[in-house]
Amino acid sequence: MKLIFILLFNLVGLMALSASAQTKITDLDFYLLIGQSNMAGRTPIGENDSLPIAGCYLLDYTGEWEIAQNPLNKYSTVRKDLSKQRMGPGYSFAKAMLEQDKSKPIGLVVNAKGGTRIEGWAKGTPYYDEAIKRAKAAQKHGNLKGVLWHQGEANASDPSTYLADLKLLVTNLREDLGLPDLPFVAGQVCYHPNNRSHKEINEVMMKLSSVLPFTSCASAVNLTTHDNLHFDTKSIIIFGQRYAKEMLKIQATQKTR
Q: 3-state DSSP call for residue 29?
């Protein structure tokens, strides 16, 4: 009888914890992370970086939240093979955002695909439609507070139309998600001395805030790669923090309106 009582007591406790957790994640502030391989995550995951992120939740395939843990792109509906998914900027972005307010958890909707061009994210394409679909699923549980975009390597050889394409992408996302002032932060590609085109497309990205309000660009200055294309561990962590800094700047501006 004593054993039965103990089992029942533990079961009630677990049910209470489950209910408590569900209560905490019904009204999340969440962020949509899209783009190509660096956003999907191609940086090796260190032992310390494989631990769950306290206070951060990840949208799964069923539209429910689970505690976030690398790789964050594992539930992307457009991703490449799971074995390719490693660490992206979302990891340190989430940690930096939580540092600003540890009392409120946040959510991440990560739906990136390596090797994609910005044209592949235009309205009506599968990548765009899936991003909208997953963001709307998350909106049933919370509030979309911003978009993180990292893409550009595939368009670096001809960035002449990139700004116009990026502006249209932001405009379409805001319209289709019903958020006309949705914050949007683009991230520069990692500049390599042997690839001048990366420098040129980074200069284009810096112009985004001049053509659209509540947008910004996370700088990749002084960051390095582990393979001439994808950020190394130290750099991807700094990069995610830079995304958070720019996102917080936009949100602070909105509060003063």
A: strand
Burial call 201-225: b when 16+ CB within 10 Å, e when fewer:
bbebbeebbeebebbbbbbbeebeb
Task: Return the pLDDT at 191.
Answer: 78
Residue 131 CB-half CA count within 13 A: 30
Instruction: Determine contact, residues 49/164, Cβ cutoff 8 Å.
Output: no
pLDDT in tens, 19-69: 334 434 778 999 999 999 999 999 999 999 999 999 999 999 999 999 999
CB 126 within 8 A of CB 78: yes
Instruction: Please state whether the predicted TM-score (pTM) of the whole model is above 0.70.
Output: yes
φ/ψ of residue 195, rounded to 5: -130, 85
Q: How many C-beta neighbours within 10 Å does residue 199 have?
A: 15
Domain 25-255 matching CATH 1.20.1250.20: the answer reads no
